[in-house]
Amino acid sequence: MKSDVRFQSNGLTIAGHLYVPDDQSKGSSPAIVIGHPMGGVKEQTAAIYAQRLVREGFVTLTFDAAYQGESSGEPRYLEDPVQRAEDVRSAVSFLTTRNEVDQEHIGALGICASGGYVPFAAQTDHRIKAVATVSAACMGRMWSHGVDGKQNEAVVRGMLDQAAADRTNEAHGVSPHVGQLVPATPEEAKAFPPKTMFHEAYDYYRTPRGEHPRSANRWLLRSIDRLAQYDSYAFINLIAPRPLLMIVGTEADTAHFSREVVESFTGPKELYWIEGATHIDLYDRDQFVTPATGKLKEFFSEHLVA
């Protein structure tokens, strides 16, 4: 059963979908907060994982990040990593108020950008008992250093110059500078190598495969001055001794994020590879989502089911 819900996050109203197992005869259930990718909304890949995990007996909660989708916040399309983490913590707080939820057994799952924001939130929120990611990426590192970590520093410095100018212009009444997030046409997508995240993002976000009217392919460009100094994983070991699972495709250009985190993490951990999957494949391709959700069921059942 799915219901529309609202909760507060740092003074902003967050729009969510709460999924509750059909059979609640056993009382409260373990629950999982699920975060969406940058530029996404709760109805896309987060909903796919939520619907599959609710069938396994978990209460699941998806939500639109602040400034995006149906959630409140101005200026629109701001990508604020600290607020994104606060949204995760606020989602946990909301779950603790629900009779359907066993508040001592709440986990969290982050997909793509939320694969950075969820672990970041969990580092200091001990209510999150188990942490999992799918196609994880740190938006701070990605925008500062590129997907492959080899981006010239001049790129981010130029973006920061533009962000500074944008802030001044806004102070003088100019509308916020909003840009395009992923390729908008097949021709633009071809500028990126095949199988890479930005090449495949067009097919997911801008075609009937995964598009949604509230996933508008927009981001506030001055978000870069919040992202450039942010690192999802700098204090990853604060999650220990709680467990960490990172699921990643063998063909994902973002795989190094998960590999490096798992190598450095000192708590219970697993890096789970999905053979043949790219970063975007794990959003919705059944042949890849099925083994991913099977692993998530195993992981959360072990660590959240009393």
Describe this structure in words.
The protein has 306 residues and is of the alpha/beta class. It has a domain at 2-139 and 231-304: Alpha/Beta hydrolase fold, catalytic domain (Rossmann fold). The protein contains eleven helices and ten strands. The protein has helices spanning 45-54, 81-96, 114-124, 139-145, 153-171, 186-189, 197-205, 224-227, 255-264, 281-284, 286-304, and strands at 2-9, 12-19, 29-35, 59-63, 101-111, 128-134, 178-180, 218-220, 244-249, 269-274. An eight-stranded mixed beta sheet has the order 1-2-4-3-5-6-9-10, sandwiched between helices. Strands 7-8 form a two-stranded antiparallel ribbon. Helix 9 (255-264) links the parallel strand 9 (244-249) and strand 10. Helix 2 crosses helix 3 (114-124). The longest helix is centred in the middle third of the chain and has 19 residues, at 153-171. It is globular, with a radius of gyration of 18 Å. The model has no long low-confidence stretch (mean pLDDT 96).
